[in-house]
Amino acid sequence: MTDRRTLLKTAVALSVGLPLAFGASIASAATYQAMTYLNVAEKPGVRGLQHIVDKVAEASDGSITFQINLAGSLSIKASDTTQALGDGVVQLADNQYYLGVVPIAGVLRLPALIETPDEYETAYKIVEPYMKKGFDRQGVKMIGHYLYPEQTIWGVGSITSLADLQGKKIRVTSAEQGKLVEAFGGFPITIPSAEIAPAIQRNLIDGFITASAGGARTLAELVETNYRLNTSTVDSFYMVNQDFYDMLPPAVQTALDEAGAEAGELASSLLAEEEPAWTKKHQETGVTVTPASDADKKAAVEAMVPVWEEWATNTGGDAPAVLAEIRKALGK
């Protein structure tokens, strides 16, 4: 670890013309590695990452550039992103798979706890200091974050209420969503995205959970209904290796911080704009869209309270206090 970090510091020093230990001052351009779990360059998360890369290049007069590696182009699993950042294997990343190393961040994904972007930001401000401490221990610095649209329920047949989940097999993208499906008599199924369509065609699942602007883009033609209850939130974070950040000149650090915040806002806004547009498109092609009823929203919260409390107990540490503060702030 120490040797790798020493090499990284030396490389950054060379790239920005900082003096090395032996007194040399050499200015030369350097290209560093950035990675994302996304596989298409046009996706909002990647566009945000590109914004960061462009701003850093501008602030460093072109001496610091990044190669953006889309999903699958590096031999690094998405679940290992935080470790790869901390070890300096990559210097910048769009990281959605961080709960394994900073478990307290899981409060942001608890089922039915957060319904709107405003509620998410309220909860995030509470948990942010604890997340920063966790990532600090990994040698990683958070510089921005973005939120995906609501994760709603799509039915091959009629699903227009939580009661309609009874006995149905629903493909979920997280254990949190699975808890909600189970609470209302359904059976959560975990399969890769590429297997959803074949599973529907073989009558192996009765529906799935995703966003209109997400998986439903290609799957909506296979379903009849969309029940717009936000089952859980999905977010992602822009992060940098702390040693890399520390070796940057102050002006470049400032540019990186600002770019990270801007990138998060950009990706969030692009995703938020896409969701209603795609929901309308799905309606026009025959999907019956039903807004979540207030009664179901209340029922979901009440059913998930024990799940939230179990998560806090199992996570331990500051989790119970953080959950209590967020529930108070959100009135839940």
Automatic annotation (TrEMBL):
The keyword Lipid metabolism does not apply. It comes from the Bacteria. Transmembrane segments: none annotated. The keyword Signal applies. Keywords: Signal. GO terms for biological process: transmembrane transport. Residues 1-29 form the signal peptide. InterPro entries: DctP_fam, TAT_signal, TRAP_DctP_sf. SUPFAM superfamilies: Periplasmic binding protein-like II. NCBIfam families: TRAP_S1. This is TRAP transporter substrate-binding protein DctP. It comes from Acuticoccus mangrovi. The lineage of its organism: Bacteria, Pseudomonadati, Pseudomonadota, Alphaproteobacteria, Hyphomicrobiales.
